[in-house]
Write a structure and sequence with these properties.
Layout: H1 3-16, H2 22-33, H3 37-50, H4 55-79, H5 84-96, H6 100-110, H7 120-130, H8 134-147, H9 152-164, H10 168-178
Helix pairs in contact: 1-2, 2-3, 2-4, 3-4, 5-6, 6-7, 7-8, 7-9, 8-9, 9-10
């Protein structure tokens, strides 16, 4: 119940035996209890590297990472709410709510933003597919591949369009390229 008091002792234990996964696991849990999620994730990463079968470490690592995302999202929504990255998160949220037209409109408005979030044209394409606008989606994926060939989501979107058009050979070709 006194995680902050335990941390110095757990740090010493971790230094004494660097191959025992229990010390970084306990340290990661203590950091989670003190809401130091970044340090927790670092220690829990060490624990699972030492013993990948340690289910408790994986579970706690997942919780720490979710808490990190929550902290970052809260920071972004208050301090950087007008950034294109906050807009992208909001558009992703709209997609998850099946509000594809609104998501597509928001993605479209973010296309000229600087800096531009990664794979934004592909995300627009995904929304357009869900809105049954194959032509617009195909255009978004092609533009993404031209501007950002490293974005695998564009290839995946093109494969989806090929499957929807019953062009299975093209879909397999695109998936192989992605692989």
């Amino acid at each position: 119940g006194k995680a902050s008091n335990a941390i110095p002792f757990l740090l010493k234990a971790e230094k004494i035996n660097k191959i025992d996964p229990q010390a970084p696991l306990a340290l990661g849990r203590a950091y989670v209890a003190t809401r130091n999620f970044s340090a927790a994730a670092q220690q829990l990463d060490r624990a699972v590297a030492l013993d990948p079968r340690l289910g408790q470490a994986w579970f706690t690592l997942g919780i720490a990472r979710l808490d990190l995302v929550e902290v970052d999202a809260r920071t972004m929504s208050t301090e950087d709410k007008d950034s294109p990255f906050a807009g992208m998160l909001y558009a992703e949220s709209l997609q998850k709510q099946a509000r594809f037209r609104e998501a597509a409109t928001l993605y479209q408005s973010l296309l000229d933003s600087k800096p531009q979030p990664p794979c934004i044209r592909s995300e627009l394409g995904i929304s357009l597919i869900r809105e049954h606008d194959q032509t617009g989606a195909a255009s978004a994926f092609a533009a993404e591949r031209t501007a950002h060939p490293e974005c695998g989501l564009a290839l995946l979107g093109q494969a989806r369009i090929a499957l929807d058009g019953e062009n299975n050979d093209r879909a397999v070709e695109l998936l192989n390229e992605l692989w």
